[in-house]
Amino acid sequence: MTTTLIDALTARAIVAYELQDTSVLPGLRSLGAAMALHGIAENGGLVGGAIENLFFGENLTSVDDAVAGYRWLGLADVAALVARAREEYLRFRPTGREELSDDDERLWEQLDASFVEIAPLERVEAAVSARLAAIAPELLPS
Question: Could you tell me which of 85, 107, 100 has the C-alpha nearest to residue 40?
């Protein structure tokens, strides 16, 4: 399955989110928050790629925004997983430099694997398609 809709909207949505562009629909900004985190998580993993990078960039509020974005899209399970990954990361690496226990390493890997399993782009695209009127109504089929 292709993700044509995601491809068409992601860059625009992320820019709208990052600039907090009030000239666009709030749904586009919500999508941008989710997709900004999603792209990092797909490339480097949910915990080590997204959460850790945002932690070191002192931008954990964007994780909270992504959680809200996933919830808005109707992806409550993805939102819950991202929120849990944030909490767990802060528990096992409060300064970002602590060594992980074997159990925490397994949990880290499990959280990353769960994200890949429940948040494929095709599923996100289906959620976007269902909310398209509130994101980018100009893309609705006539």
Answer: 85
86 class by beta-carbon count within 10 Å (0-12 exposed, 13-18 middle, 19+ buried): buried
Q: Tokens 């269902």 correspond to what residue?
A: 130
Write out pLDDT tens, residues 11-58.
Answer: 999 999 999 999 999 999 999 999 999 999 999 999 999 999 999 999
Report d(CA 103, CA 49) in Å as an integer.
Answer: 19
Extract the tokens encoding 107. Answer: 């949990």
Q: Are the beta carbons of 13 and 32 closer than 8 angstroms? A: yes
User: How far is residue 96's CA from residue 127's CA, in Å, rounded to a whole number?
Assistant: 33
Helix residue ranges per DSSP H, 20-101: 26-44, 52-56, 61-72, 76-92
pTM above 0.85, yes or no: yes
3-state secondary structure of 115: helix
